[in-house]
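Hey, quick one: can you model this chain's 3D structure?
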Amino acid sequence: MQTVVTAERLWDGTSLHHHPLVLIEDGKIESISSHESAQLPAGARVLDFPGATLGPSYFDVHFHGAAGHDVMEATPQALDTIGTFLASRGTSAYLATTVTASLDATLRSLDGLANEIAKLPQPGRARPLGIHLEGPFLSHAKRGVQPQEHLLAPDIAIFDRLIDAAHGHVRLMTLAPELPGAVELTAHATSRGVRVSLGHSNATAAESQAAIAAGAVSATHTFNAMRPLDHREPGILGTVLTNDNLYSELICDGIHTEPEIVRLWWRAKGPDRAILVTDAMAAAGMPDGEYQLGGFPVQLKEGRATARGVLAGSVLTLDRAFINFIKFTGASIEQALRLLSSNPAAMTGLAHRAGTLAPGKSANMVAIDSTGRLVASIVGGHQAN
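Sure thing. Here's the predicted structure for all 385 residues.
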C-alpha cells in the first residue's frame, strides 16, 4: 500500500519546500511534490500533519544505550529494544558507541555489533549505521568515567584488531591528540576510512592542530572532558571553537552544557559544523535507579546519570535536544534540523544513507511543530510513535 505524507513545509536536507506531498512505497520515498502540482493516489494511506515541518529523521553519532540496554551487550534483543525506543523519539540511525573496556570485552562487543549492523533494516525501528569507538586511546587526565585500567596508548596494531573485529563497520573514533602516537594513528585511521574525533583530552592547541592536520574531522562532546579554555593556551577547546572546518558535537541537555555555553558554541560553529548528540546510556527512557554503561554501574537520579560522582553519559533524546537547542539559541527549525541530520551524515561520510529526504531513499522522517516538538516519527515508511 502506498502512503502519502503531507505537512505545511518540508526541509529535505538542503532546501525548503512548501505544502509538500511525499509518496512512500515499500519503505522508500517514491516522490516529493507539492499539493498544488500532484493528486493523491487512489487508495493511498494519508498521514497529514497540518502546520508541521517535515525533515530527515535524526542521526545520533554518539549513543551508548537506552531503554535499559547498553549497545555493548551487542545482542539482537538489546538492539531491537533500543531501536524501537529511538524510533519513537525521531531517531532512525545511530552509531553504536563503545566505552573503554578490556580489549577482549571490546572485541566481543564489536563482533556482535557488526553482525547486527549487517542485518536488513526493520520498519519502525532505528538501526546502527556503524560504530563509534570512544576509547581506549584517551587521556587519563580527562577520562571522565572511562575505566583508567583499560586506557591504552595509541597503537596501530591494536586499532587494526578493533577494526577487523568490527568487520570494517567502525565509522568514528574518539582520540586524545596529545598522546604519543596519536598523530600517526589519526593518519592511519583516516586512511582506513575511519573518522577521527578529538576528545577526552588535555591537549594544547598545537597538539590538537597536529591531529587535525593528520586528518581529524570532529570533536567529541565539546566542553566536556576537555582542557579548559585559557587566554594564553587556547588548548583543544580554543582550537575546536575557532577551526571552521572541524565538526563539533554538543550534549544539549542543560546539564552537560549551560544555555550560555550552547549559544557560544552555536556562534562559533554555525549551521555547517555543529552536531547535536545525546551521549545517552542505558538509563535513557527509564526511571531512577542503577544501570550499566559498558559494564560498570551508573546511578540515575533526577535526570543526572553519574558514576563515582562524575557525569556518565546522559538520558537525553534527540527530540529533547532539538527543543532545548531552539530554546537556548533562537535558531530556526531548518537550522536546528541540520544539527541532527545532514551534519552528522556528512561528518561520518554516510550522507547516502541518512540526513536527507529524496526519491529512492528510505522513508525516514520527522514531523515537527513550530516549537520544535516532535509530532510524528516515520521510520521505513511506518509511523513509530
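One thing worth noting: The chain is about 30% helix and 30% strand.
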